[in-house]
Amino acid sequence: MNIASMFLRILAILGALAAAAMFWIIGDTKDQLEAELQSTENSLTQSQNNVRSLEEERDELEQELASLNEELEESLSNATQLDNQLTQVRRELNEARQAISEQEDESESLRAEAEQIRSQLLEERTRIAELEENLQDEDAEALRTSIRALENQLLETERQLQTAGTTETDDGASETEERPRQVLRGEVIEVGPDSAFVVINLGSETGVRQNAPVMIRRGPRYIGRAVIRQTEDGGSVAEVQPGASSIQPGDFAITLN
């Protein structure tokens, strides 16, 4: 009886020890599991934060991409507009070159015509100088009339040569003011240094205009050309053009009003 009782007590002690050991083991495992759970929850929270951060970054990148696409479309539109403008400028440049070429052809034609008239005028003056003493009054007057007509034609041709292509209408076409022209005859009253300019006795009251061509001659001999640069009452200043011979006071000055 004592042995059985002792055995039962030993078993009870062993059971208590085993229960205590199990309780200790289970408690320690619970703490580990709770720590692992907390760590997992922390990792999950961090992962969620990372996901939100990545989503925000993705949204920003999508906005930047949309903005870049808009800028690209705007750049393509601007490039198209610039290309159209470049095409228009090239077309206008070609038209301007063509117009300049036409004006140069017209100017060359007028220069040739003016040179021909000068030659004819020189021939007529030479003829009248040689034959004036032997001609009847009617024949001499006829030659003078022919010379005046050639002088008028030469001055008008030089005026057209100066104004060719310089005045434009609203449509861009050149126009020349058409009105009757009167020949003005005067004299050189002063010659500037190096014959760079001359003063003639035809002033603004006679109708002389700036930029009008002036033909200078000495008797029947053609001396050269000048262009009116300044007009005043009683006289005008004309710039002598290249190729003129030595000009002297008293030389004839002929122009158009």
Structure, described:
With 257 residues, the chain is an alpha+beta fold. The protein has a domain of 77 residues: Rod shape-determining protein MreC, domain 1 (Thrombin, subunit H, Beta Barrel). Helices cover 61% and strands 16% of the residues. The protein has a six-stranded antiparallel β-barrel with strand order 1-2-5-4-3-6. Helix 1 runs antiparallel to helix 2. It starts with a helix and ends with a strand. About 5% of the residues have low confidence.
Annotate the secondary structure layout.
Layout: H1 2-131, H2 137-163, E1 183-191, E2 197-200, E3 213-218, E4 221-232, E5 235-240, E6 252-256
Antiparallel strand pairs: 1-2, 1-6, 2-5, 3-4, 3-6, 4-5
Helix pairs in contact: 1-2
Summed up:
It contains two helices and six strands; from the N terminus they run ααββββββ. It has 257 residues and is α+β, with helices and mostly antiparallel strands. Strands 1-2-5-4-3-6 form a six-stranded antiparallel barrel.
Give me some keywords for this one.
Thrombin, subunit H; alpha+beta; 257 residues; six-stranded antiparallel barrel; 2 helices; rod-shaped
* Sheet with the most strands: spatial strand order: 1-2-5-4-3-6
Number of helical elements = 2
Quaternary: single chain
* Total E-strand runs: 6
Please describe the biggest sheet, giving its number of strands, its sense, and whether it closes into a barrel.
6 strands, antiparallel, barrel
CATH class of the domain at 181-257: Mainly Beta
Helix content range:
55-70%
- In one word, what is the shape? rod-shaped
Uncertain runs with pLDDT below 50, 5 residues or more?
167-178
* Element-by-element helix/strand order: HHEEEEEE
Strand content: 15-25%
Q: Termini separation (Å)?
A: 165 Å
CATH superfamily of the domain at 181-257: Rod shape-determining protein MreC, domain 1
Radius of gyration: 55 Å
Sheet/helix structural class:
alpha+beta
Find the CATH topology of the domain at 181-257: Thrombin, subunit H
- CATH architecture of the domain at 181-257, by name, is Beta Barrel
Averaged pLDDT: 76
